[in-house]
Amino acid sequence: MTDRIRDFLRARRDMGQDEGPVMVLDLDVVRDNFTAFARALPDTRVFYAVKANPAPEVLRLLAEMGSCFDTASVVEVEMALASGATADRISFGNTIKKERCIGRALKLGVRLFAVDCEAEVEKISRAADAAGIEAGEVQVFCRILCDGAGAEWPLSRKFGCVPEMAVDVLEHACRQGLHAYGVSFHVGSQQGNIEAWDGALASASTIFRECADRGIALSMVNLGGGFPTKYLKAVPGVESYGDAIFRALTKHFGNQLPETIIEPGRGMVGNAGMIEAEVILVSKKSDAEDEIRWVYLDIGKFGGLAETMDESIRYAIRTEHDEDRMSPCVLAGPTCDSADVLYEKVPYPLPVSLSIGDKVLIEGAGAYTTTYAAVAFNGFPPLQQYVI
Amino acid sequence: MTDRIRDFLRARRDMGQDEGPVMVLDLDVVRDNFTAFARALPDTRVFYAVKANPAPEVLRLLAEMGSCFDTASVVEVEMALASGATADRISFGNTIKKERCIGRALKLGVRLFAVDCEAEVEKISRAADAAGIEAGEVQVFCRILCDGAGAEWPLSRKFGCVPEMAVDVLEHACRQGLHAYGVSFHVGSQQGNIEAWDGALASASTIFRECADRGIALSMVNLGGGFPTKYLKAVPGVESYGDAIFRALTKHFGNQLPETIIEPGRGMVGNAGMIEAEVILVSKKSDAEDEIRWVYLDIGKFGGLAETMDESIRYAIRTEHDEDRMSPCVLAGPTCDSADVLYEKVPYPLPVSLSIGDKVLIEGAGAYTTTYAAVAFNGFPPLQQYVI
């Protein structure tokens, strides 16, 4: 909680405009986070993962500070451009792209693309050809699979290929005349282990050597995201990640360090945002002595808290009664969907005095909330955001 | 697939407007479904569950046909009214309501409310008082827990209380001067067992008796939803449900049958809608002989197929190559979110010849798709819908 957010919420309530849940994001925190990343990894270019929070104010601030942008779609490319970033600061980081979307991104000036298979390389090659763009100007990097151990929102095998295949994919890009630029990986979102980059960097250096053996000089390693934000548990500072990554880079690449980029999303905006929600109901399912309380909020899984899926992300929730005795409760959202339950397998401790109408503050909600919200589920509007 | 949907999709493609996934809903199917429900349960009032698909065209058709409406929020109440239904045909079926939302619904004329605890009864009582509405005009029914066995999208314990507690809740309503009207339950969405209503009706009849012992004459049983739509497996026809429910009613209530209402959502619109999507990528993660294919569509968990959560709802997917040999694949959506995978634990058989750019048809997609879609996740727009 920052003073600015506190003041904003107070003013909103005083004006009687506090109907419905709201997310408030403090740009000062984003500014501090960017500065911390730039200091912790001074030789690494920062590509902010736009999907984490594409608010125009956030993108504008980061563009002014010199950030680059990792985008997932043409719409995100356009948002990054609209924020003032030039196309050479934009990466199309989604490995799953329609060929016509690649074409549009190329026309918008984007020259940096992620791939994880030969078919995607061919789409880029054809799209460049169709757009009349010299293939050699288009840089591609190949994403490799990574086990994601230690991450709270671990990645599936959805993105990336095995390292051995990456060599073939990059060679294929080379044969198509594209610039085989490097390797990317993602150690898993909300990664608590600062050493998690070591194994993937070992794979990356092997790919660099094998490509060199085939006459292909790779030059870039995309270290991905994974930098955590603080939810309930303390997380290591970004400087610890910087130190550990630099050690791993030196270990695996010696004195031939590659160019590097990082793609923080959650780590850039997570702790900058806070959701204020309201308790709609507190009830029990029976009169049994040991029956657990159910607490229902006016925000749930479909209103912005999608990352509570499988109870993965456990937000810190503050109330005005936190000095009181706590007792565990099941926490649920407001919709008529019975899957809209936030925490049940591991009940959430909340004050026994928490009542209907009380406000609660959900911390660390600046990333992966507003855009995840359902467009109109049960008639509820999507989560409102104020950037201050 | 209906001829009308086929023609619509063909025309759309011919006009070159088939960019992005689309859901097309055929009102003729909705009309047939309503007629089937009305025939299968002739003495039961149908309250369409608006949340399943609140398209104005759907609501208008059902309003004209005489349907009532089960709503989850004030916005849904307003949509039902806008469709031409009078307020006496609207139930506020969400057990989790803000007091000010109850007040708004009362002002809009709604007099039928779900509850599952005493606190909710008190909100209704206060809201009626504040609105200057005679408490005795306001009907409340108490939802009870139900085990949901046999359902493909089983319900958690989120809604309802144990039957013993329901008697107290209804008595509490009575003491507040409200009209204690009856009992509701939900046997679980996509319920394949036509006998699933039996156990809950036994509980309901016990509550009727116990309330009668306390001088409270209940008169209504809300049989909820749960009526399935056809996905991959065949489901029993609605007339089988009607017969089984009538048998169970007679068994538990003898010749003193209560008024009944049903709340079909999926059963009313599920099979009326079909999604057309596009294959963005087909790839493998390694060159290993037994490596599974990944097929990526331009729609996924955050674009409207939220009910693939935990691989619960298994849609029937048609392609233009269905005569070909099939092989299992992992099916995933287009976003940069690794949780956006539809079927992986149980891979989905698709033709080996399925290629990038091919269209696929996802059947039974008329319910719980459009409004679940994320507002802008990864920059992708929400699922478009055409009602024909």
What do these coordinates show?
- Chains A, B: It comes from Methylobacterium bullatum.
- Chains A, B: The active site is at 336 (proton donor).
- The structure is a homodimer of 388-residue chains.
- Chain A is α/β, with parallel strands linked by helices.
- Chain A folds into two domains: 3-23 and 271-387, Beta Barrel (Lyase, Ornithine Decarboxylase, Chain A, domain 1), CATH 2.40.37; 93-264, Alanine racemase (TIM Barrel, Alpha-Beta Barrel), CATH 3.20.20.
- The first copy, chain A, is built from ten helices and 18 strands.
- In chain A, the strands form three sheets. In chain A, strands 1, 12, 13, 14, 15, 16, 17 and 18 form an eight-stranded mixed beta sheet that branches. An eight-stranded parallel beta sheet of chain A has the order 4-3-2-11-10-8-6-5.
- In chain A, a hairpin with an 8-residue loop joins strand 12 and strand 13 (293-297).
- In chain A, helix 2 (27-40) packs parallel to helix 3 (56-65), helix 7 (163-175) packs across helix 8 and helix 8 packs parallel to helix 9 (238-253).
